[in-house]
Specification:
This protein is α+β, with helices and mostly antiparallel strands. The protein is built from 13 helices and 16 strands.
Length: about 425
């Protein structure tokens, strides 16, 4: 099936689900706006603009201030804002594969964008331009609307999977180039540029800022400095993705040279096996929170086997907080139009949330992995001084192999991350199809 047909089916399903939502809430229609650019503080420059993710769910048109109007039973209306401007180029309307799905109106006057949207009906609004929406007679923050819009994002349509695969393909090319640059002795900045060139992306197009961490910097989970003065790293942790039609991939790999400690190289090999095992353990509708607990069990086994944790069984290693010190983040999150996509804890359309595990209260995703969802699986083991030092100074200090930990501390850490599509028959690893 071609991209046009995939998108039309996606939009048809979206309209049907949204018509149900509007009927449940006694609303006549829905307006989504792309949003407006912001400004740096006391500056006349804009940060890169990214349109409202719920608008992007309906329309892949880039640019600010566009408006979409959905009235059940009517053709979708798309108002494209294209002011006369010689300072900036207004991206022209090029119908491509999606344009004939809408009744398109080109608007050059901002006031006309918001005219006659409500037209005497109960029309809800979602987006960042709430004051304009109120003046236009739209219902802002309609009770129950956002949870239902988020719910509609959980199950990805074949069109969305197509976009995620394309984003994965681009990022995979970048990752391969980044590894080559690392093994040739490149700096963090060299590796970043290698990724960008191979992924054919500009920085404002990335779904998130690239993490390019050599050696000890891999211990910072969201490291972003990209040093140019450090070359010939022994360890590289690269967390980088690409975007296609608003959908982003999120991929992490860790590499080590022969100069890295043998213990770290062995740990990295076994982490690869561990991560693959977690992916294979996914079954449709299992709770993501349960998979996270399983990851801690596997990581405890790994640390015990590599003699980083001593004289301790798996249950005790978790109960004493040892695994949290080495693996302090969640196993994964929903993926789609947002890198950390919506509804990761949501259990129904009305917004009921799954109860958090008191041991892991900050997980982004705890809900069932129902068929159609896309989730990341990204276990890690890190040597983070601020998390390990309290154990070193505490009553259970003898249960950790401090001589080995100090030897591995300059290596930073390990993270391996794939993007997984859960379906009725099991799982599809979107990442491994392009980045073995």
């Amino acid at each position: 099936m071609g991209l046009r047909e995939l998108f039309q089916n996606h939009l048809q399903t979206l309209q049907s689900e949204t018509a149900r939502t509007l009927a449940e809430l006694n609303l006549d229609g829905l307006v989504l706006s792309a949003g407006i650019p912001g400004w740096y503080f006391e500056d006349d420059q804009n940060p890169p603009f990214r349109s409202n993710h719920h608008f992007r769910h309906w329309c892949p048109m880039e640019g600010s201030q566009h408006i979409l109007l959905f009235i059940p039973g009517q053709k979708l209306q798309l108002r494209l804002y294209q002011p006369a401007d010689f300072w900036h180029e207004s991206k022209p309307f090029e119908p491509d594969f999606w344009g004939d799905s809408y009744s398109v109106q080109i608007v050059t006057d901002e006031e006309k964008l918001w005219a006659n949207l409500a037209d005497g009906k109960r029309v809800a609004y979602h987006g960042p331009e709430t004051e304009k929406a109120r003046k236009a007679g739209l219902e802002v923050e309609a009770e129950g609307l956002l949870s239902r819009l988020n719910w509609q994002r959980l199950v990805k349509s074949p069109y969305e999977i197509h976009c995620l695969v394309d984003a994965t393909r681009k990022a995979a090319a970048g990752h391969k180039a980044a590894e080559r640059s690392f093994r040739q002795g490149g700096s963090e900045l060299d590796i970043h540029f290698a990724f960008m060139q191979a992924a054919r992306s500009q920085e404002q197009d990335l779904p998130y800022e690239n993490i390019i961490a050599l050696n000890e910097k891999a211990a910072y989970l969201h490291y972003g400095a990209k040093r140019d003065e450090v070359h010939n790293g022994k360890v590289l942790l690269i967390d980088a993705g690409a975007s296609t039609r608003g959908y982003g991939s999120d991929i992490t790999r860790t590499y080590a040279t022969e100069d890295a400690p043998e213990e770290f190289q062995a740990l990295l090999t076994d982490m690869g096996t561990l991560q693959a095992g977690l992916v294979n353990a996914i079954t449709p509708n299992m709770m993501m929170g349960d998979l996270h607990v399983f990851a801690h069990q596997r990581i405890a086994e790994l640390l015990i086997r590599h003699k980083i944790i001593l004289d301790c069984d798996v249950a005790k290693a978790i109960d004493l907080g040892f695994t949290m010190a080495f693996f302090p983040h969640g196993l994964g999150h929903m993926l789609g139009l947002l890198v950390h996509d919506v509804a990761g804890k949501q259990l129904d359309r009305a917004g009921a949330a799954s109860a958090p595990d008191p041991r892991f209260p900050k997980l982004r995703t705890t809900r069932p992995l129902q068929p159609g969802t896309v989730v990341t699986v990204e276990p890690g083991v890190y040597f983070i001084k601020m998390l390990l030092e309290p154990i070193r100074q505490g009553p259970n200090c003898r249960n950790l192999n401090w001589a080995l930990i100090d030897r591995l501390m300059p290596c930073g850490g390990i993270r391996i991350e794939d993007n997984i599509h859960v379906h009725e028959q099991g799982v599809r690893n979107l990442t491994r199809e392009h980045l073995p």
